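Sharing a chain and its predicted structure for anyone who wants a worked example. Both blocks are below, sequence first, tokens second.
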Amino acid sequence: MPLNIRFLGFRMPRLAKSKEVTLDSIPKMSGASSSSSALSRAPAYHPAVREITLAESDAAADSLALAFADDDVAMYFVRMIQTEGWTNEERWNMHVRVMRSIVTAHCLKGLVLTIGPNYDCVALWMPPGANMDDKLTMFESSMWQMNRKLSSEGHYRFQKEFLPLLHKTKGEVLGSLDNDSWYLVYIGTKPDSRGKGYAKQLIEYVTRQADDEGRVCYLESSNEVNPKFYRKLGFETEKMIHLTRGPKPVELEIMVRKPLQRDSSTKKTSTKCGQTTKTP
């Protein structure tokens, strides 16, 4: 998720804001969620997956903010010594602001999927060859404004540690496939909608296409519970990385899914760097 946040000297129309998510609406949770919210425990039938429009971006982001309310990575930019004077409401509003900017940017340049009656699960995908680096996207999504609202330490963590680490790691892991891959940037299910198979459907919606295209899928898991779930969908762990400016290291698990295809004998095949190997 390489982002260059810069201020531009012109104005764009502001997007209409949806109803603000408040602290009162955050369910009490124990342990980590989010990428953890991706965990689904029981298959079921659900309404169709759909792509959201730009007008829905704030509503989708507010649901994603709830899903990541306890996530160590999501809170890495708002929970620190420099924000000890902030109220819980101020920290939460900053968290929501970050999510709204990221979702808007993905609506503009990526793919935002949802499922359920009220944005119960939301997935942000960056398609092959796409990115959010251009100045217009940064401005339209208010990423530059979000960056200015962070504390100086939060700004450093986001701009100088987090983004460069993700960018470098993705390039190292995927190599020549970096710009030809599907990137699952965020996926989260609201706490009261978990266990219904929503996350599985949002992931398989894209992995089926990736298989048809012969492309890999890539993600960073910020919760120790999720990798087991992702492995069931074909992802495998490649390496671990850490954010280290907090009181304790925050770990992310890097996972890659190789494309599966069918040959004439109907056996599954796995593709790696242009080489195809049959598997039972």
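Comments welcome. Confidence is low (pLDDT under 50) at residues 1-46, 264-280.
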